[in-house]
Amino acid sequence: MARAKKKTAKKSVAKKKVVAKKKVTKAKPAAAGAAAKKKAAAAKKKAAAAAKKKAAAAKKKAAAAKRKIVAAKKKEAAAKKKAAAARAAEAKKAMKAQIAAVAADLKAAREELSAAAKREAALIKMATNKDAAVAKFVEKWTKQQLAKLAKAAKPKKRRKKAKKAK
Fold it and tell me: What is the 3-state secondary structure (H, E, C) of the chain?
């Protein structure tokens, strides 16, 4: 039985060692748990940072897309404005051409009217001059004719023939 006692003694020693190991292992799992918790927290932090980074990148991308859309809208509005200005300039040009044509027609009509007025004044002057000339001629001619008649009506003067001395 002595041997049995030894065995038990060994067992108890072994048990103590095991207990000691168990204490160490118990301390390790607590440390391992804390380490695991730390790892998990770090991983969580890392994942959160990655998600934050991803969200920031998406936000940046959305902002860039928004800016691109705004720039495209501005460009389109500018193009529309430019096209409208070009159409307005074209219409203005056409209107100016039309006004110039009407002004030219008006100028021609004024010149024609002026020429017609001058022609009319000349014709009136000519008619008055003609009437005056005709009246003058008729008066002169009438005087001549009356003078002829008067002369014809007067008794003719006859010279007496001088008697010849005998």
Answer: CHHHHHHHHHHHHHHHHHHHHHHHHHHHHHHHHHHHHHHHHHHHHHHHHHHHHHHHHHHHHHHHHHHHHHHHHHHHHHHHHHHHHHHHHHHHHHHHHHHHHHHHHHHHHHHHHHHHHHHHHHHHHHHHHHHHHHHHHHHHHHHHHHHHHHHHHCCCCCCCCCCCCC
Query: Residue 11 and residue 5: Cα distance in Å, rounded?
Result: 9
Amino acid letter, 99:
I
Model confidence over 11-46: pLDDT tens digits?
A: 554 454 544 444 444 445 566 677 788 888 888 888
Reported pTM:
0.40
